[in-house]
Fold:
Amino acid sequence: MAQEDVPAVAVTIHVVARKAGVSSATVSRVLQGSASTSDSTRAKVIAAVQELGYAPPDRSRRPTSMRHEAYGLVLADLGGSDYSELVMGLESAAADLGQSVVLVVTKRLDDASETVRDLAQGVDGLVIGANTVPDAVAHSLGRALPVVLLARPDVAGCDSVRADNVESAALITAHLFEHGRSRLVFVGEPDASLDVSERYAGFRRAHIAAGVPLRRPPLRVPLIEGAGVRVAEEILRRRVKIDGLVCGNDILALAIIKRLQDNGVHIPEDLAVTGWDDVLAARYISPGLTTVRQPMHDFGRLAAERLHARIVNAQPVIRSEVLPTRVILRSSCGCPALSAPTRA
Structure:
């Protein structure tokens, strides 16, 4: 191809950031004249701008919703591999669209709603996760700029992306019935989030479909390691007659298995255990953990694409999308270890 036939590549703030070896937010601060960056960083950014011929957008000629070249991501916490997959999915898709990502974690904020409102002033759109800000705040923000909700109930004016929890929870519960288990307990707090409530709904649906009575209420605990240890200790102390646990996530399941095994309980012979998320450790624990895999990378990618579609479309269509999940059979449920598949 002749030199003059090479197509021009759009120079965005993200391209400048890569050239300078800094974040897009840093480039933005330098171009705005902020004093919060060092002289050396400022020099690298200016050099990259000059070399690439980057011209900041003419804000007077662009819609206000396009002026920041950044998406906001609001999460309750960053614990667990599922969050990292989500962030990577969002960031990679945003980069392809010439956007950076500004992250806010609300776990230790005194006033998360006010912080997220402030964030909304400096981004083109928001991705808001579960257990961060109330629905009323999300609705208010959705009236001012594009908003995509993750793993949350639908809110008027906002797009949403969530996983299919009910079907896979019903499948994994029914699978335990196939192994001859009939005294199952759900572990997790259904009132804590949409995800957990739907997983418990699937657990109940499988009981109804199989004609198996629900013998015990759910063990209402948070989805954290310490709660799993406490559940295991309660099982050991009371010697309750159960033969299977359907856990709200892998962290609970792994903590329960480890503490029970340390006290002579055989998994799955004495007690079958399943999880949710398919974290890395689920493959390497013995026995391997039967669980449900969620497309976390796809969540992030789709959220970025939905924001882009809303931003460039003068009359966007609000959409609610449910992504499929997949039951991963290993041996903690009773399947033979040799037949348990590995993660793709």
